[in-house]
Design goal:
Strands 1, 2, 3, 4, 5, 6, 9, 10 and 11 form a 9-stranded mixed sheet that branches. A two-stranded parallel ribbon has the order 7-8. The protein is of the alpha/beta class. The chain starts with a strand and ends with a strand. About 45% of the residues are buried. The chain has a single domain, classed as Collagenase (Catalytic Domain) (3-Layer(aba) Sandwich). Helix content is about 15%, strand content about 25%. The protein is globular. Helix 1 packs parallel to helix 2.
Length: about 260
Amino acid sequence: MKTTSVVLGLLLALALPGAPAQAYKLTKTEGGDVVSWLANCRTFYMDPAGWPGGRGEALTKAVSQSILVWDGVECSDLTVAYGGEVEALKAGYASCGNNRNEITFRGSWSYMQEAVAYTTLTYLADDGTLVDADIECNLDDFELTLYPADNPQAMDLQSVLTHEMGHAVGLDHSADGDSTMYFSAPPGEVKKRTLSDDDRDGLCQLYPAGTLDQDCGAGTTPWVTPTRTCSATAAAAAPWEVAGSLGGRGGRRRGGWWWW
């Protein structure tokens, strides 16, 4: 099984040109395959350790709502959920190990300084099937807030995560400046907390109603990639292809959110 990964993200703003009628864009592999989840049940976990002040009700609410806004879109079969807190999460996919889709906060940032957050997607190179999605927030270069009305010079965490969740389900950046998936946002902006028609249209093209039939009932955990036991030799020979570049070659793709 050959896997690759890519990087998608969010930046800071410019004057917005008029958006085309269909402004959304789907994430694709180098070969042109659409990157998407095969099953409709996806759960995301948070490690609150890096957040200033640590865990709390307001943080949980912002994270969970940024996930759930992508759930239950009428024309789509995709189901996403918040799975709670898990400590010591580390972004990236382990070919031998237990993987979770995760949200983390980084006080030490190794990516582009202009990026408020990055989402790393890992998918099968031959058909674009997603196997892992991890979101990292940049607390090194940006102040993020749970209360944008009280701190309008900071970036709204819920908006940032709602945008990154769009990447996590397979959407690339949109040309529509009013959409959640537009590539940038100014400090204090909160409109990306809710989906635009363009965002919903993109999601419903990826996961049309009636195309995914996995049971998401109690007792199922399809969002956790099963632990795989393999030898050190097999792990070292795992067929990875890493292309960590904004703009989107196949492989490990990180998508950021930028400010202006």
